[in-house]
Amino acid sequence: MKTLFRSLSAMLLATFTLAADEPLLALAGNDPVALSQGVEATGKEDLAVIHGRYRYLFTKAENKQKFESAPDKYGIQFDGYCMKMGPLSGRGSPDRWFLADQRIYLFASDSCRDKFKADPAAFTDRADAPPTGTEADKRRGQELIKRALEGFGGADKVDALQSIRWEARTTYEQAGKKTDIIQATTMALPDRMRLDYSYGKFSESHALADGQLVEISSKNEVTPMPADVRDYVQRRLYHEPLALLRARNQPGFVAFAAGSGEVNGQKVEWLNCGYRGATTKLGIDRKTGRILAAVYHGRTPSKLGKITKSFSDFKASEGGLLIPQDWTVAFDGKAAPAENPTAKSVALNPPLDARSFPNAN
């Protein structure tokens, strides 16, 4: 976990500064439609379009029209976040780009761009392939969902949960000075999520609600995020077991039994769940029904890979809901090579109001 936090701090420090009220000239003035075809051509000031954080120039009216009809296709992807470090990390320079599959990505450094060039698929966040299985796997999958609900204390208790917040805090000391890195995830069930993180004096939040994602600055400035970043955060939501179980009756939710195995020496049955582009494999304890692990494809400290989140220290809340109080993360089968955060906490139904999930409009 400490390695992950150090990676996060490096990402934050690499953030490309953007004036909120002044869109940046994108791609050194190159026409993004021409660039998507591999052609560098300087656009004209009288053919300009402002979209999100950037101002784009075009060589001809036809290209301008193409862009305006499909800005998510022709514009800078993932709101300009460095695609080596990943969404919600730090933004790249609008003058440092690379084209992959006719899409334009930005980077915070030449080193980041070079690593992306070597294997673009290893750094490009997209929807997961949905799980599949036989009819027998599907039937057993439904039985395992019921078992997992029992492991949390019962379907009624899971469905009654309004919100839950996890927080991890790590304190670093350097030259006699202590600095806290804090990461917090709040789920307001069934489909809202807030991510808060701070490093020293820097703080930033993202809130997903009503099909929209916004970024919230330390000054409470609210900025809407594009669809690809929203979908990335939505997938994070549905990698969480409680969010998946709450979505079990929604159209598009699928679940298939996926064999047996072990999690930290305990026998489990595996359940593959898929919903809204997120596929997650849950390890369900055979004896108790508790979910001991969630395994999914996601952003590791260096690239995309297999993330295994293991849960332990289950305790009952006042309402009888059984919630794990501790968790660890492994990347590509290897445990994080440093100590856990200084402190972790779990809060059920923390106070939330309209400011927790602001509307960008």
Q: Can you characterise this structure?
A:
The chain is of the alpha+beta class and 361 residues long. The chain folds into two domains: 2-122, no CATH class; 135-356, Clam (outer membrane lipoprotein receptor (LolB), chain A). 22% of the residues lie in helices and 40% in strands. It contains nine helices and 19 strands. The protein has helices at residues 2-13, 32-36, 61-69, 71-74, 110-118, 135-151, 155-160, 227-237, 241-246; strands at residues 24-25, 44-51, 54-58, 93-100, 103-107, 163-174, 177-188, 192-199, 202-209, 212-217, 222-224, 254-263, 266-275, 278-285, 291-299, 304-316, 322-331, 334-335, 343-348. The strands form four sheets. The protein has a seven-stranded antiparallel beta sheet. It has a seven-stranded antiparallel beta sheet with strand order 12-13-14-15-16-17-18. A three-stranded mixed beta sheet has the order 1-3-2. The longest helix is centred in the middle third of the chain and has 17 residues, at 135-151. It is globular and about 65 Å long.
